[in-house]
Amino acid sequence: MSKKKQKQEKASKKKPRKKKHRLLKFLIGAAVLVALLGFGLYQLVGVVYGKMTYREIAEYTALPMETDGVVNILLIGNDSRKNGEDGRSDAMILLSVSSKTKKIYMTSLLRDMYVDIPGHDGNRLNAAYSYGGPELLMETIRQNFGLPVNRYMLVNFGAFVNLVDEVGGIDLELSNDEVIWVNNYLVEYNILTENPQGTFELDPNLSGMVHLNGPQALAYTRNRFLGTDFGRTERQRKVLTAVIGKLPSAALTNMGGLIDGLMPNLTTNLTRGECFRLSLMAGKLISYEIVSDSIPQPGTYKDVTIRKMQVLEVDFEENIRYLKEKLYGE
Questions:
Q1: Are the C-beta atoms of residues 65 and 71 closer than 8 Å to each other?
Q2: 256 CB-contact burial (10 Å; exposed 0-12 / middle 13-18 / buried 19+)
Q3: For position 73, what pLDDT does the model report?
Q4: What kind and span of H or E run contains 73?
Q5: Which value, in Å, is the radius of gyration of the alpha carbons in the chain?
Q6: DSSP reduced 3-state for 113
Q7: What pLDDT sits at residue 299?
Q8: Pair type for strands 170-174 and 208-212
Q9: pTM for this entry
Q10: Contact 320/146 with Cβ under 8 angstroms?
């Protein structure tokens, strides 16, 4: 065999080895980069998580955050004037992230629903929070609606106001009646925050698209005199939807403000590891549709008086069927 052919054969044997070597180096480099990014994200989540108040509930920690492809987190808005679990549950919204339907559901649970409360007489749903805090409220929802609700986030007035302000406020369509009620609720807010009366007040002649800051948005969501509790919960979801829509851009320009404004006013039983898992889901969640809803559904309840209380008597079987079909595709 000529020397020329021998050199060609050696070169042809070396080329595949070189290609394999390069591929291996690329894969190792990519793995290291992913590991570094993951570690950096984990550290960031840790910093943010450290600003929240973690409250372990042993019997719930052992239960999974996700069941059958759905993550259910109960958002509880209370009227505490300090960071804690005192006060009443002013809002109860079930946040459900469904990988089955590729949707994020915000389902308001009306507080006037008459429910069975474990260890207590039947009462309005929000009484469960008054009796036993988030634990009893989650257990009451599980018992009455058959949903695995094992995680919660509790936010107070301060968190709500700060969140809206840190995203730069929101724009919503308001009727003139709603504007007037915003101003009415701001009277109480200014007393509680020791601001001069008239602070944050809207032009009483306004209607149409209105820009709301934090205190104004809070006043808007607390109004239950227009459209009863159904109208109030719809306004809560409108504000949350508007805020969620502005979060990505606000996170790029004002991440520090968002973290410092919201997190110190938030209490949860989500672990750091679970928050990290949720952060890893953020990329795909951007493409998920946000669906606003409420329970009970129209035609599945009636207004009744029980023990001198004006409450909603609910067809639980129908609402359970509706929830399971919507969230789990059953």
A1: yes
A2: exposed
A3: 94
A4: strand 70-78
A5: 26
A6: strand
A7: 95
A8: antiparallel
A9: 0.80
A10: yes
pLDDT digits over 71-115, tens only? 999 999 876 555 455 555 778 999 999 998 999 999 999 999 999
Placement of tokens 């809206």 in the chain: 164
Continuous H helices in the chain? 3-50, 58-61, 125-145, 157-166, 176-192, 214-222, 228-262, 272-280, 282-285, 316-328
Contacts of 107 (CB under 8 A, 6+ apart): 93, 94, 96, 293, 294, 295, 323
The string of DSSP letters for 216-263 reads: HHHHHHH--SSSHHHHHHHHHHHHHHHHHHHHHHHHHHHHHHHHHHHG
CA–CA distances in Å: residue 99 to residues 22, 106, 329: 37, 15, 11
220 vs 95: CA distance, rounded Å = 21
pLDDT-based confidence at residue 286 (cuts at 50, 70, 90):
confident
State the residue for tokens 């958002």.
Answer: 75
Q: Which two tokens stand for residue 311?
A: 């409450």
CA quadruple 105, 111, 113, 114: dihedral sign: positive
pLDDT at position 85 is 57
Considering the chain, what percentage of its residues have pLDDT values greater than 90? Answer: 55
Residue 30: the pLDDT is: 47
Residue 259 has pLDDT above 90, yes or no: no
Mean pLDDT of 163-167: 93
Nearby residues of 140 by Cβ (< 8 Å), 6 or more positions away: 115, 116, 117, 118, 125, 128
CA atoms of 96 and 145, how far apart (whole Å):
14
Rounded Cα–Cα distance for residues 139 and 132 (Å): 10
Token pair belonging to 162:
């700060």
Give residues with Cβ within 8 angstroms of 25, minimum separation 6: none
Nearest Cα residue to 285 out of 69, 98, 72, 149: 98
